[in-house]
Amino acid sequence: MGIQGIELLVGRLKAGDEIAFHSLFDHFYPSLCLFALKYVEDQHAAEDIVQDTFIKYWDKHIDFDHAYKIKSYLYLVTRNSCLNYLRDRKKLAKIQEGADVEADEKFLQYLMEEEAYRILYQAVEQLPPQMRLVIKHALMGLKNSEIAEKMELSEHAVQAYKKRAYKKLRESLNEQSLLVFLVSCILFQ
Amino acid sequence: MSLEKYHFDIAALVGKSLAGQLNQEEQSVLDGWLAESEENREWYAQISAEPFKLKKLEALKQIDSKSAWAGLKKKQRGKKQRRLMPVWIKYAAAVILPIAIVMGYLFSDNLNVFKRNELPEISPGFSQATLVLDNGKAIRLNDIEENALRVETGAELKLSEKHLAYEQLKTEKAAKPVYNQLIVPRGGEYVLTLSDGTEVSLNADSRLRFPVNFEGNIRKVELEGEAYFKVAHNKAKPFIVNAGGMDVRVLGTEFNISAYKDEPAVYTTLVNGSVSASTADGESTILVPGEQAALEIRSGRLTKQTVDVSFATAWRNGRIRFRDRPLDEIMSNVERWYDVKVIYEDDDLRKMTFGCNLDRYSNIEPLLKVFEANGLLTMSINDRVITVRHASH
């Protein structure tokens, strides 16, 4: 499945396909955990909350017709569970009442940060190991010569890896970019 | 503003831009969004900074989806079973369970079952040592009477709980010198007075080999580990400590030597008087009070520096005292004194620096709390093994 490929999974998820569910989990679990950690600051609790989110989702998987609705559900339920967790532990100082979506200013930023990095991470992780390493160094702003030294490769080899890696990266990132672009055009008219 | 599909689309563009893969149209859409508000621009600048990228990708990698999926499956199974459980079983369990607990309690031969959840306590070291005689016989000093020890050693001596004191032999018999060895285990300390009146305080995990009587024109002992010496003054007979490749030569003075085999250097810190420290290679240096000689084991290099001696001798004053030292250095002292083993999740933790000034004779907890107080690490104890981990965020 591609980076944004959950678009393609929606039908199977709706039909209750376990393998599709597992794919969905693999793609979103790390990002949702980091998202939960913005609220609860306890790794174990965060992971617990996210697992429960997926269980809740799977209990009502039939209700979802669109990928973005699944994503929205996962983030919203995770956030609400985090707030409940904090409330239960009386750690909630500032957000006491009316903690709805609108009131939580940071929520959208947290979500977009995790989504952006989920897409980057999944794209990079799909690369073969050598290419992945080259790309990771390049993303950190290293020059070809520096990457070559770090990886004990010739500069030429680094260049070749980079070229192929970017091509693959572009392919997987583009799986949905047409869709994104169309939607964005409409929004920004 | 509430959550819309639009937010996911912008996030997807940001993800692509982080990979440097936006085409022209996409770039202009993103630029349009960034132009909308200062808030958007600030957010974007923050999350696209390179150190942030690195941290984020690492954090994502750290999360173990595989075992989490297994955990989820387990939870799902538990949930199903709960649903399948008929109501009458719940009521039955409500009655039977308390009875079972009470029965279990009554029939258990160990009433301490309820204490099991207490934190394991690790107590400090105490006075203990073993004396090894010339003939190889080992005697635990905590288990023997003064008179019996006199018979065993053939020496004039006094023995108390914390202190063994040899006395000068009245008869002048030369022959060949008789050597004894005092061994202080991990979690121990002990004070020894040699037959010339020199007092040696030994720290945990240390051993001193010494002649029962000092013959000839020098007084020579061998040290492994750490000891504080108060050398009895005798101009005619210099006192020499051989410690891990460093020879420390004195007339009469007070100093601390730390010569542990698992440490990178041997240190001699002078409190009073004057000593000369030399190496097998013939290097030597003379110390004045407040100076410390260090012999680096690997290179054999001998160096000298001015120090605050109260840190080197803090252990003798019943303190665990450090200023701005790496955690692993502090913990290697702690390991010897509390007889524990410390393991680190990774090497970054070893190099975090700390300071502390605590009672050496209290349990280990307050010390561990000092380290945890910076919020960056956690320490857990299991069966005398302390595991140091990064605090989770």
Automatic annotation (TrEMBL), chain A:
<dbReference type="Pfam" id="PF04542">
    <property type="entry name" value="Sigma70_r2"/>
</dbReference>
<dbReference type="InterPro" id="IPR014284">
    <property type="entry name" value="RNA_pol_sigma-70_dom"/>
</dbReference>
<comment type="similarity">
    <text>Belongs to the sigma-70 factor family. ECF subfamily.</text>
</comment>
<keyword id="KW-0805">Transcription regulation</keyword>
<dbReference type="GO" id="GO:0006352">
    <property type="term" value="P:DNA-templated transcription initiation"/>
</dbReference>
<dbReference type="GO" id="GO:0016987">
    <property type="term" value="F:sigma factor activity"/>
</dbReference>
<dbReference type="Pfam" id="PF08281">
    <property type="entry name" value="Sigma70_r4_2"/>
</dbReference>
<dbReference type="InterPro" id="IPR014327">
    <property type="entry name" value="RNA_pol_sigma70_bacteroid"/>
</dbReference>
<dbReference type="InterPro" id="IPR036388">
    <property type="entry name" value="WH-like_DNA-bd_sf"/>
</dbReference>
<dbReference type="InterPro" id="IPR000792">
    <property type="entry name" value="Tscrpt_reg_LuxR_C"/>
</dbReference>
<dbReference type="InterPro" id="IPR013249">
    <property type="entry name" value="RNA_pol_sigma70_r4_t2"/>
</dbReference>
<dbReference type="GO" id="GO:0003677">
    <property type="term" value="F:DNA binding"/>
</dbReference>
<protein>
    <submittedName>
        <fullName>RNA polymerase sigma-70 factor (ECF subfamily)</fullName>
    </submittedName>
</protein>
<dbReference type="InterPro" id="IPR013325">
    <property type="entry name" value="RNA_pol_sigma_r2"/>
</dbReference>
<dbReference type="InterPro" id="IPR007627">
    <property type="entry name" value="RNA_pol_sigma70_r2"/>
</dbReference>
<dbReference type="InterPro" id="IPR013324">
    <property type="entry name" value="RNA_pol_sigma_r3/r4-like"/>
</dbReference>
<dbReference type="InterPro" id="IPR039425">
    <property type="entry name" value="RNA_pol_sigma-70-like"/>
</dbReference>
<keyword id="KW-0731">Sigma factor</keyword>
<keyword id="KW-0804">Transcription</keyword>
<feature type="domain" description="HTH luxR-type">
    <location>
        <begin position="124"/>
        <end position="182"/>
    </location>
</feature>
From TrEMBL, chain B:
<keyword id="KW-0472">Membrane</keyword>
<keyword id="KW-0812">Transmembrane</keyword>
<feature type="transmembrane region" description="Helical">
    <location>
        <begin position="87"/>
        <end position="107"/>
    </location>
</feature>
<dbReference type="InterPro" id="IPR012373">
    <property type="entry name" value="Ferrdict_sens_TM"/>
</dbReference>
<dbReference type="InterPro" id="IPR032508">
    <property type="entry name" value="FecR_C"/>
</dbReference>
<dbReference type="InterPro" id="IPR006860">
    <property type="entry name" value="FecR"/>
</dbReference>
<keyword id="KW-1133">Transmembrane helix</keyword>
<dbReference type="Pfam" id="PF16344">
    <property type="entry name" value="FecR_C"/>
</dbReference>
<protein>
    <submittedName>
        <fullName>FecR family protein</fullName>
    </submittedName>
</protein>
<feature type="domain" description="Protein FecR C-terminal">
    <location>
        <begin position="320"/>
        <end position="388"/>
    </location>
</feature>
<dbReference type="GO" id="GO:0016989">
    <property type="term" value="F:sigma factor antagonist activity"/>
</dbReference>
<feature type="domain" description="FecR protein">
    <location>
        <begin position="186"/>
        <end position="275"/>
    </location>
</feature>
<dbReference type="Pfam" id="PF04773">
    <property type="entry name" value="FecR"/>
</dbReference>
